[in-house]
Amino acid sequence: MRILDAGRLEAIETATFTQADPFPWVNPEGVLREEAFAYLRAHLPPVELFDRIFGKARAHGQKPHDRFALEYRPDLPVDPAWHALVDELRGPTYMGFLERLFGTNSLWLSFHWHYTPTGCSVSPHCDAPRKAGSQIFYFNTEEDWRREWGGDTRLLDDQGKLSRRTAPDFDDFVREIPAETLGNRSLLFERTPHSWHGVRPLTSPEGEIRKVFIVVINRMRAVDRARRAFGLPLAAGY
After folding, report:
1. Would the pTM of this model clear 0.90, i.e. be above it?
2. Which pLDDT value is given to residue 237?
3. Distance between CA 70 and CA 213 in Å, rounded?
4. Fold of 6-229
5. Using one digit for the tens of pLDDT, what is the confidence trace for 78-91?
6. Which of 224, 232, 199, 202 lies closest to 214, judged by CA?
7. Quick one: 137 exposed, middle or buried, by C-beta within 10 A (0-12, 13-18, 19+)?
8. Where along the chain do its domains lie?
9. What is the pLDDT of residues 215-230, one digit of tens each?
10. How far apart are CA 143 and CA 46, in angstroms?
11. Number of alpha helices (DSSP H) and beta strands (DSSP E) in the chain
């Protein structure tokens, strides 16, 4: 079973991404083939595999990002389709897509799942400079989630005024753009000094979980290039 839809990736124009406001982003539908999306959704990793990340202090006084988290590694006891997805994401089609949009071939990927229960949020933040960007794949649909419960990633516009080493609230931004997150959707964005984003507190009923799979797009440093040249892993679980 092929998982990624190469045609959907090819249809995303570089200028659409790079010229988006307030920073480069695109919110496509159907990057995963529909049958693959349905299968992956039905075979998501069980929460028992996840670490509990609650109340963990963040830099600059930002509020904790409470959630269950699972880092991908090749020996994880998950459905083989997830390993196949990672293989495709590391393959030439997807990497070529990223290199086209980001304008560089000095990228490497890591992966994790986040499950988030009611009341939790992702406070406004900019990612670390080592990241080139992220692509968030959403795995809730109208069958198990209602829009009024939240869970949509918000792209936040600070008009270039805020330092990432601060802890603003959502209301401190001039504008927030909610991504479409129900169904076979993903959000790809580039990390910039002002690529603020977050998720407002969930209002879902107890037991209803927001589920995402995240591709972290990392910038390759000199040490990473050296490790790659010798066939060594670039990070834990790579």
Report:
1. yes
2. 41
3. 9
4. Jelly Rolls (2.60.120)
5. 999 999 999 999 99
6. 199
7. buried
8. 6-229
9. 999 998 766 666 666 6
10. 19
11. 6, 11
